[in-house]
């Protein structure tokens, strides 16, 4: 029931986030200014230090002459300086990045809500079991009694997953205790 609630909440949150990203106003014919750029990396040249230049230009204008402004060298050295620069046209989709981040945060938020629910509700779900306390006392007094004599509720059915897991865990503990006792007894008899 809670998982369905969390799923409905997460799916509605995801739908709202997708609609916000899709319906945002497009800029520059579908590309925002952050989506396209030309990046020129220019190494040091004579007494000028290296620098990285970014500018929003089209792919055909992605070269040193259009991106590097202001030009750090005088007119006759521009060609030599531009030959050293490496320019790359970069394109990305910020809408896709936003959608991925929103999906990731929605999933993490849903898991945190589920964890909080389990932390708050788990003590209410677990009922004090009348058979658990004798079992713990029996482990402390294993020399006096055997764990196999602990009465198990044959008519009672496990109603929740937690009760079934606890029952399986208790059976496993009893089996391990019996195996330990058998091994230690045999070891004492052999020596």
UniProtKB/TrEMBL annotation:
Protein name as it appears in the record: TMEM9 protein
Signal peptide: 1-29
Membrane-crossing residue ranges in chain numbering: 99-121
Highest rank taxon of the organism: Eukaryota
Protein's cellular compartments: Membrane
UniProt entry keywords in alphabetical sequence: Membrane, Signal, Transmembrane, Transmembrane helix
Principal location: membrane
InterPro entries: TMEM9/TMEM9B (IPR008853)
GO CC terms of this entry: lysosomal membrane
Family recorded in the similarity comment: Belongs to the TMEM9 family.
Protein encoded by which gene: Tmem9
